[in-house]
Amino acid sequence: MSIEPDYKNYSTAELEEAMGSIDRASYPERFKTIESELLKSQPVVVNEENPIQEKSIEKPTVPIVTKTDGKIVHFIIRLWCVGLFYIPYNDLYEAYFEGTTYTRHHGLITYSSEPILFTIEIGKSIFFAAILILGFIKNPFDYKALISKPYKRLWRQ
Length: 157
Description:
The model has no long low-confidence stretch (mean pLDDT 75). The chain has helices at 12-21, 28-41, 67-84, 86-98, 115-134, 143-148, and strands at 100-103, 107-110. It folds into two domains: 8-41; 67-148, no CATH class. The longest helix is centred in the last third of the chain and has 20 residues, at 115-134. It is mainly alpha-helical. It is rod-shaped and about 120 Å long. A two-stranded antiparallel ribbon has the order 1-2. It starts with 11 loop residues before the first helix and ends in a 9-residue tail after the last helix.
């Protein structure tokens, strides 16, 4: 009965000597332990074929645009929509109550003086007002969402 030596305490030279002198056929387990201890004791060579794979500590990445930033952007868009809504509202107000509207090249016009131009200007104001109103809706052209869930996730949050 043989006592198995502790190869963990051997130096590299002693491990190489033991590997050269051991009978591999008689002691295959000892040969494997010597080989593993020899591999543990050798320094790791870094090159293209054998890159060192270190465990990197991953820091949580902060997104560039956060949810709060998106909400701020939507709030600014809403403010612009409210501010710009004055233009078509004022034009439609004057057309309805006073019967006049203002154009840049023709000045103040009425329906009786320029009916086609007056209609075009009112149409532009209605279209511009509709665009500004749709600016508040999250996805105004998704009609399936409007039909199936009319109040859920319709407005921007």
